[in-house]
Write the structure tokens for this entry.
Amino acid sequence: MENRRPAAVLFDRDGTLIANVPYNGDPEKVVPMPGAAEALSRLRREGVFVAVVTNQSGVAKGLISPDQMHQVNARVEELLGPFDAWAICVHDDADGCSCRKPKPGLIIRAAATMDVSPLDCALIGDIGSDMEAARAAGTRGILVPTAETLPEEIAAAPEVAKDLTTAVDRILAADPMDELNRLVSGGALSRAQIAHWSRW
């Protein structure tokens, strides 16, 4: 897939935007991952939609209630700002749904909510199922590993970034006009040159 700036960036929740607390139903345990707030703020300033796509099988298992899940999500928005879309799968593996990652349903749902194509999105996640869902939807996938990410998941990922800051740097730098403008501001190119190149 061509690495150009997407219209929307989708984030896995647990282990990507916030620290992974298995089956968390307590808003007080929500802790943003390093760089999450800054990465989201940069994307919003650049006019890029941001969304969350998350598996929450604890609801199907009866370990957390839908209300607890919504309280945790509200705390995520309180700490990290509003999202343009939330796509949540509350099913378990045995339910046979079409939304639970690694299936592409959450990505397709979030993209539809924002009125963009999955092909015009990027997904940042921390495990292999995130990358498999991105691949299935035709979405650019960037893996930001944690201590819980398996070595084989890192090896199989289409792209790997060391942290959220690096992932967003890469996404925002994907627009060739950004690089040309950077060269202009640094004196390496003139406005006439960039105008000439932008016609092609």
Q: What stands out?
A: Confidence is low (pLDDT under 50) at residues 194-200. Residues 102 and 130 are 6 Å apart (CA to CA). Helices lie at 36-45, 66-80, 105-113, 128-137, 151-156, 164-172, 176-185, 191-197. DSSP finds eight helices and five strands in the chain.
